[in-house]
Amino acid sequence: MNNVFKMVKYFKYSRRCTYNLTNAAADCTIFSLSSGYGKCGVSVIRVSGPRTRHALQTLLGNRHELKARYAYLKSIYHPETKEIIDKGLVLWFPGPASFTGEDSCEFQIHGSLAVIAAMLDALGKVPGLRSATAGEFTKRAFYGGKIDLTEVEGLADLIHAETEAQRKQAMLQSAGALSRVYDNWRKRLIRCAAHLEAYIDFAEEENIEDDVVLHLTKELRHIITEIRNHLNDQRQGEMLRNGVRTAIVGPPNVGKSSFLNMICQREIAIVTPIAGTTRDIIESTHNFGGYPVVFADTAGLRKHTKDVVELEDARELLRNISTYKQSAQDYQTDYLQELDLDANKLLGKRIQLIANKIDLLSMTELQKLAQIDNVLKITCKQPTTDIVQPFLRHFEKLLCELCGEPTAEHPRITHARYRQQLERCIEHIHIFLNEYAPDIFPDTAISAQKLRNALKCIERITGHVSSDDILDVVFKDFCIGK
Fold first, then answer.
1. How far apart are CA 262 and CA 265, in angstroms?
2. What pLDDT digit, counting tens, does each position of 200-217 carry?
């Protein structure tokens, strides 16, 4: 019984740490344009805070009583001039059943710049209201316990998603897929810490089982295994979120810039018959089958020996492979080993050898090239469907292998800080397991602190234990009105 009491007491303390950390001015009501700024059919202005009802009464008139979560077509008036600003839909969301957990409302008005400006001016004239800062609505939702920090970051990723796979991953995270995984570990660590502290406090006085430590160490090993499996994801979630960085490299004048232009279907790089036109790295983000790819066109790599890594002149490729009597894979490996120190970072990466300018080959040369495995054949001068499609299919398959498919059952790590905190969590648990032995390490209370440190690592991910510097990083990319 004492054991359970200890666990409940610890859990309550941990929850209390979360919501006493509020930086939001709870006595202040905020407003902002939540939809995109510019001419459009409809714009949405959001209000949140304790004076939301007063703002509604001021702009609509005291005679209007709105039901929660109903849409009303109303005339909206300026509080000073009493002139009608616009006629639009108004929705009232009393707290805590709102996005922020506070009293909130939305004005859905016509999207002209004049109407938006007049509405914002009118709200600014209502006492107790001020303009929201970037991400302040979401920050209030976080401090109000409506969402945790992983869901906040998932929402930010959803706003910035540019491809279908990014949208799926961000949607799953904003809906709590990662939260459920981390909260499960958090609750189990709380239980382990509570059991240990109960054992420390009451083992000599109460009927506490002698094998309680044995059971909790077994549970801790299970948690370590689960976290390690979660970490062993080949960084798929981070790669999908940030884009797969792909360098187009090779000797001068093999068509790297033409290849980039063909893939992106627009003139990104300068193309001339003069070797060495590209001096700097040119980057371009492209959507391949729902996966984001950041292409980098590099300056040509000039070498005294075999000059091929990613893109090669098809005729030169045939000549070099024939001369050295080796496979395309061996040829590529030799080339990588002869690159300078920075380029050696490519070793172990996924590399695809592409033979360009096949339109210049004779039928005999084309037949020889077809016999070489693991080489994709293209021409940027005449990019017909039957030539380009095999490359696109192969590349999309490769991206799917690299990024994986976002699922609710196996959510991926999307931020480096999650990975760092999970690795630290494992370290603290390991220290506890290695140090805790009553006959060797008599100070059980000090050893128990390692479990609390492991728990804090998980709580820093979800925001149960937070700090201003982490929150500043999380909310800095949010737009005004969200």
1. 5
2. 666 555 555 557 778 888
